[in-house]
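FORM 7B: Structural annotation worksheet

SECTION A. Query
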Amino acid sequence: MKKALIVVDVQNDFCEGGSLAVPKSSEIIPYINLLMQENTYDQIVFSQDWHPADHKSFASNNGKKIGETISLNGAPQFMWPDHCVQGTFGAEFHSELDLAKATHIVQKGKNPEIDSYSAFQDNSHFTKTGLDDFLKYHEIQLVEIVGLALDYCVKYTAIDAYNLGYMTCLHFNGTRAVNVKPENGRDTIYELLETGITVLG
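SECTION B. Predicted structure
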């Protein structure tokens, strides 16, 4: 069975010191690097949030406060701080992440009108990133997922992978939650288990 590792959004803005820092995010980087060293993956895919500066998910572009929710194209949109703006340091992969083994990079969130948590498609399922086509072309059947943040981009990447027919595993030690609400991380794990996704220690 061919398998792929999907490393979701381990970028400077999501790590300590970043504009949308996930608590204890740097702890997952040695774990991810070790996974890549000790396992034989047929493909290793890195996803990268890659927003234009005028992205509508940024509170600053809507005259809103961070944490508010607006309606964007008929769907609720959480207001985030500016993050992972194309070409900035914050959008770069963390320097301690081993990029050498990456076989493919998927950029997401490039359309300013719609947010994109999943590495497979935007939040309204209008635009695909090409990740599914890439995995199918390489006959991948099993995907293992790590990265940031558990309760948003990792969650939706895992659910999309499962719904697209991949055997899907999440490495619990390879992810952290941003926890906009304190219970988000815990609730996300329950939701993924109920969906049918395997959670590995």
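SECTION C. Observations
Residues 73 and 178 are 25 Å apart (CA to CA). The first strand starts at residue 3 and ends at 8.

SECTION D. Sign-off
Analyst initials: ____
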